[in-house]
Amino acid sequence: MIYPVILCGGSGTRLWPLSRKSYPKQFARLMGDESLFQASAQRLSGASFAAPIILTNADFRFIVAEQLAEIGIDPAVVMIEPEGRNTAPAVLAAALWLLKKDPEAMMLVAPSDHVVPDAEGFGAAVKAGEVACAAGDLVTFGIRPDRPETGYGYLELAEGAGDFSATPRRLKRFVEKPDESRAREMLAAGNYLWNGGIFLFSVKDIVAAFEATAADLVEPCAQSIDEAKADLGFLRLAPEPWGRLEDISIDYAVMERATNLSVVPFDGDWSDLGGWDAVWRESARDEAGVALSGEATSIDCVNSLLRSENDNLEIVGIGLENVIAIAMPDAVLVADMSRAQDVKKAVSALKSKGVKQAQQFPRDHRPWGWFETLSLGERFQVKRIMVHPGAALSLQSHVHRSEHWVVVAGTARVTVGEEVSLVTENQSVYIPVGDKHRLENPGRVDLHLIEVQTGTYLGEDDIVRYEDVYKRD
User: Model pTM?
Assistant: First the structure.
């Protein structure tokens, strides 16, 4: 049985402003009705696969659980990394956990933010890799290049130049991201593949490989798992030993040092959506090469991407060529297509200015639902809040602000002090400063309300929690 191991971290800089640190690209619906994470989980499900192992961080745990529930996938475990330590510790943690559960298993490691339209072809490549994996090889998957890409690392085949059929073959070496001249040479040579960051190995073989090439990682990682604590269906890895782990990728820690390597070519469409230019390439385009998404209009534009992420915001391009234009409720990006990889520079510049849009998504996701700010003044804030059916906010109070809730859809159960009441559409309730209160959705449909805050301080840290079903501090 193959256990998918889905890596679900990320800082969300290259697809800003849609992708941000608080809500990176794998959770966004970039290419359709499903998020990239959901599409990845669907691709790695079915008769050939066991329930997936998910590795993420505490900030994303409820988003992961919610998006998996939406597509009907129940994970084997969702591991919460105390802090990001790159891919090697994450893979090792999954392997050591699985070693106790099913030591004869294979594990397929994959990022959560790739686009693979040919799921059947990808499945055939995985099936081919099982043969080499069963023979004791560590298998990686390489993507047939179709352009001299400088944003990817490469894999050099030891044999079979020009043959991109899905059969395991020897891997000669890993190649760092090249400049354009070298990338053109490798494309012409026919024996190089893009490094897709996807791996297949038996649990025993990868643990043995870590012990041989990265032994310093094994003890603290094992200790972090042994001392892990269950928390609302998640497994929180112990922070102290985890903090002693080196920040290192699986490529550097193991794959580039191992001798039992095989690579299976994948001759199908694939993208890691590593920039808005990649999103443009993967999107449906008109005869002028223009890709539109959301409320967008193109007039005499060529080879451009126009995308609005707000139903009430129309983006219009006139006479644009090779331009990226992305409109969010709180930020707009306009860039030359050739500068797509420089979007992360914009994030750095905004962070240095202390601009919240650099990292904070306009819609703030919580385990009970989400909220977004509609208007913010010196002593007031207006929010829109959505609460899932059956969900509840914590019993809490505020030191510096009062709140007024107006229900606009659904029914709320509201606790203020000792009084509990049902509040329906077009009804409202007032919460004075300092009063204990709670908001719940007892119904079967999403609850939407408008919250008006007034006070001397309106920050999210002005919360005193007394009870919380999600066990937040």
Answer: 0.89
